[in-house]
Amino acid sequence: PLAVGHGEGEMYLGSDAIALSHLTNRVSYLEDGDRVELTHTSVTIFDENDQIVEREIHISTAASGTADKGNYNHFMMKEIHEQPTVVGQTLGTMIDPILGHVNLPDLPFDLSAIDRVTIIACGTSFYAGQVAKYWMEQMARINVEVDVASEFRYREAVMPTGGLAIFISQSGETADTLAALKYAKSQGQHILSILNVPQSSMERESDVVLLTHAGPEIGVASTKAFTCQLAVLACFSIALAKARGKIDDAEEARLCVALTEAPARMADVLNHEEAIKALALEVAKAQDVIYLARGLEYPIAMEGALKLKEISYIHAEGYAAGEMKHGPIALIDENVPIIVIAPSGRLYEKTVSNMQEVIARKGKVVFITDEKGAKNDGQDALVTIALPMLDEFVTPLLYAIPIQLLAYYVAVAKGTDVDQPRNLAKSVTVE
């Protein structure tokens, strides 16, 4: 994608509105096949048929100050600390706190008639989609598939007309996700996209868009966009369950209250920063790290492993804790840190049982749990991080933060480029 900035006596060409935000807030976007000629006073756009066309000029909301680290050493740390605020803002656009009700925009389809959902994304957004699969299947009792966009577009998926396809992207320009969207559209799917950047290519192709309100995310490794995606997906899951008659008004209100409490608890999690910073010095010595979890936290374990790989260049893998004995247990010794994520809940005892298997094999366990879990089983781990107690439904929002902090401080300890890790780009616009 290319953005054209319209100034006074000067015109600009940039990758997106953020890149131009210190120059102008008047931006138009080129479409596929367009070419543009700029002078200091004019913009002329030609379409793929070489005909002169007009492209709408948008007033960008990207503020120039968003590209400022403020008092932080890296954008990633700034964005980690912004999460309680931006998640609160995102929830505020979707939840009526008085009525305890999720407000969706007008949908061009009947939500109660949807009988299957396909979620498609790449990277961190894919893990947000996997969390949503648990939410939607448990609450709305609907079949949900989650696909990596780069695989989905080539496997010729069978998609009966009238299904709902949800696409998740921070930028709205991810090439594989955009191509998968166009395929799903050709198969008669209703297209709902969850995006952080307005006026993107994916927004133009979608039937409806739910915007996250994370603000511009500069660090390549996604943090606040991820938790805002979770917030939107949680709200949508509630609305879907309500539309399908699987929850009543009282349960909807209870879930909404749990969600609105999350930002304050996320701020509390940041109080563990110094303990995680000290832990990172040990993890930075490792060549391999394993993350284990079950249920809603399983995608968080995979996201934790991805974060560590992205910015510290340490090999890491996230596994369902119950799968450990089917292979990964062979890797465990005193040199491999094992990050166990286990909030109290119905899967807690099973996860702790897997943790004990690791400890019995001299694995170095980092136990990320809540106050109840720390009291009952924290003494067996090398390090225990005790997070606030919160409704099981919203734990992914909390448990995302310590795995982000750990990846950040391990990368700092190793001296890597945190905000721009090697070989990676913020928007992957090639296939």
UniProtKB/TrEMBL annotation:
It is an enzyme of class 2 (transferase). Keywords: Aminotransferase, Repeat, Transferase. InterPro entries: GFAT, GlmS/AgaS_SIS, GlmS/FrlB_SIS, Ntn_hydrolases_N, SIS_dom, SIS_dom_sf. One of its GO terms (cellular component) is cytosol. Its EC number is 2.6.1.16. Gene3D superfamilies: Glucose-6-phosphate isomerase like protein, domain 1 (3.40.50.10490), Glutamine Phosphoribosylpyrophosphate, subunit 1, domain 1 (3.60.20.10). GO terms for biological process: fructose 6-phosphate metabolic process; protein N-linked glycosylation; UDP-N-acetylglucosamine metabolic process. Residues 107-246, 279-421 form the SIS domain. It holds the Pfam family SIS. One of its GO terms (molecular function) is carbohydrate derivative binding. NCBIfam families: glmS, PRK00331.1. This is Glutamine--fructose-6-phosphate aminotransferase [isomerizing].
